[in-house]
């Protein structure tokens, strides 16, 4: 238990660190990777360059400090982060290293104000927070290893099939190289792919949603090619260099953006671009396990050439008793028009959703680019859907959607 004095010190200094969040996190990561370059084999380099990892860390530190005397409030966020840590093979021995550099960063940012009492208080608080993460992650590692076909860290998988789904998205079908069983997973979860790219010093880790229902035979990931984007090193390498017969390292499925199959409520699956991947896993699972469950699948794409899985979605909806679909194309081609490949042109709007007679008590799953999600979540709120009914997933470190509301396109 932390003393009342420690709690008071941490809470009183947290706002100062929040104001200096960028300076604090930049200093932290710079010294961490300088002193421990081996940790670059774990962290996503692209998120570092874009500042997303720094922002996520600042938000986490501030939240932990704010609720240091009632950490149970943070448990949902802790579990979300712990899923990512387990998927990246973060271990207990990493926490003291991180703690040492966090305290060093606090000293650097606070300067003369960083008294021994303040540093000791933060050291105590970090120890308690680290223990919470280590405990949660230990349970996750054990659960991962103990399930049928499970394992703990990374395992070699063979690419048994590579399929082009659209001009931008390609699917990779993966099976264990040792011929072992493929563990089950919950629709919406992801796996981490680890690659060694020729010419690069460090390993690369990327997390990709599983795009098919759990089947015991293979994992399928569907990857967007990031043309001209230097941050798409892994995605582009997979497209250009990884072929059938090649081997990649994989961690067991993780993530808490999952379909709630224990409920009979209506479901709306709303996606944009490559955000379709976890939604397709959810849709196919509903079709297999709850075919009578009312489900509406809404997908936005630029046009038919970049719209992946349109036939797979159509075929899945056809075998469902209460399935509906809505494809919205921003800029359809003449071929799209001729084939009747879409239902609406432009962007998803409130009027489109109203026309569907949306059920305010349904569950809404949203996935896609951050601006897309901000917009859709804002629209759902205007239509009377409560926050408790909305689930969303974005790729990369966590951000605070509520803080992003001001940026929603009106």
UniProtKB/TrEMBL annotation:
Cofactor note: Binds 1 heme b (iron(II)-protoporphyrin IX) group per subunit.
Superkingdom of this protein's organism: Bacteria
Entry annotated with the keyword Glycoprotein: no
InterPro entries: Cbr1-like_FAD-bd_dom, FAD-bd_FR_type, FNR_nucleotide-bd, Globin, Globin-like_sf, Globin/Proto, Hmp, OxRdtase_FAD/NAD-bd
SUPFAM superfamilies on file: Ferredoxin reductase-like, C-terminal NADP-linked domain, Globin-like, Riboflavin synthase domain-like
UniProt domain Globin: residue ranges: 1-138
Catalysed reactions listed for this entry: 2 nitric oxide + NADPH + 2 O2 = 2 nitrate + NADP(+) + H(+); 2 nitric oxide + NADH + 2 O2 = 2 nitrate + NAD(+) + H(+)
Entry binding sites for NADP(+): 273-278
Location of region: Reductase: 149-410
Pfam families to which the protein is assigned, alphabetical: FAD_binding_6, Globin, NAD_binding_1
FAD-binding FR-type domain location: 152-260
Marked site (Influences the redox potential of the prosthetic heme and FAD groups) residue numbers: 84, 393
Keyword terms: Detoxification, Dioxygenase, FAD, Flavoprotein, Heme, Iron, Metal-binding, NAD, NADP, Oxidoreductase, Oxygen transport, Transport
Binding site for heme b: 85
Cofactors: heme b; FAD
Residues flagged as site, Involved in heme-bound ligand stabilization and O-O bond activation: 29
Biological function: Is involved in NO detoxification in an aerobic process, termed nitric oxide dioxygenase (NOD) reaction that utilizes O(2) and NAD(P)H to convert NO to nitrate, which protects the bacterium from various noxious nitrogen compounds. Therefore, plays a central role in the inducible response to nitrosative stress.
Family to which the UniProt record says this protein belongs: Belongs to the globin family. Two-domain flavohemoproteins subfamily. In the C-terminal section; belongs to the flavoprotein pyridine nucleotide cytochrome reductase family.
NCBIfam families: PRK13289.1
Domain note: Consists of two distinct domains; an N-terminal heme-containing oxygen-binding domain and a C-terminal reductase domain with binding sites for FAD and NAD(P)H.
Protein name, per record: Flavohemoprotein
Species assigned in the record: Sutcliffiella horikoshii
